[in-house]
Structures are given as structure tokens and as C-alpha cells.
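Fold this sequence, please.
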Amino acid sequence: MTKFGFIFLFLLSISFTGIAQQKLNAKGMSYVLGIKPNNLIFNDSIFRGSNEFKHLFFRTGNTQLIQLYDRHQSNKIAGQIAGLVGVVSMIAGINELSSNKGLGWGLIGGGLVASATGGYFNLCSQKNLLMAVNIFNQQYNRTAIGIGVGNQSAGLVYKF
């Protein structure tokens, strides 16, 4: 094997030294980044997708959380649309290369720019959701201990 092969294997092994598992916040909400859909874990429940996030954030009544959720949704939709337009433009550009090279290369370049823009919007949407999770944990991560009394029993209540 050549020197290039050894260097390549060394760099490849360095790149795979990441952490295999994500630590979850036991007392608050955790954002688990996945390809599709995004997941939130809160109180031993998994919330998947925008409909479940909507119920979770809207029941707090916090306008800042709702705005971050709305920004997450709008950026996610814009990113998906831009990515789709980019892919269609690149396919049309490749098809057009045989007859009109200038138009074909223009469509391919525009498609690459649109796809990159879509990726940027998707990253922004994930950032907004992560900020919402952090704000939720800062504001609503309160533990309380109380004594509960019923008709025939009494008990200790631990609310987190």
C-alpha cells in the first residue's frame, strides 16, 4: 500500500472517532437529531414530527417557544422546496446539455445553488428547534416536592 493509502486510512480512522450515543437530559427535554423526522424526548415520551411538537410547545403558552417553532416550520418547508427545485433544475440541466450547453450548465449551476440554499434552510430549522428545546428546559425544568392527601391515604409527590 502506498503512502497515500496509509494517510487516507489514518484520516478515515480519525473521522470515525465520534460519540456513538447521545446523552439524554433526564430532567428536561432532549432534541434527537435524525434525518426524518426530528424527535424530542420529554418525560419518557418521544414526540415525532411537527404536529406533536406543536401540541408540546403551544400548551406552554410561551410566545418565544411558539415563534421558534413557527420559524422551524417555515425554514423546514423553504428548505424542502429549495432542495426539490434544485434537484429538478439539475436533472433538467443534464437533459439540456446535449442540445444547448449554455442553458444546461446554467440550470445545473442554479440547481446546485438551490440545493445548497435548501440545506442551509434545513440547518436553520434544526437550530431553531434546538433553541426552543433549550429555552423550554431553562424555563420549565422545575422540580417540586409536595405532600398529597387523599380520602384514605397520604403520599409524597415528586413533580419534575
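Residues 24-144 form one domain. The chain has one domain: 24-144.
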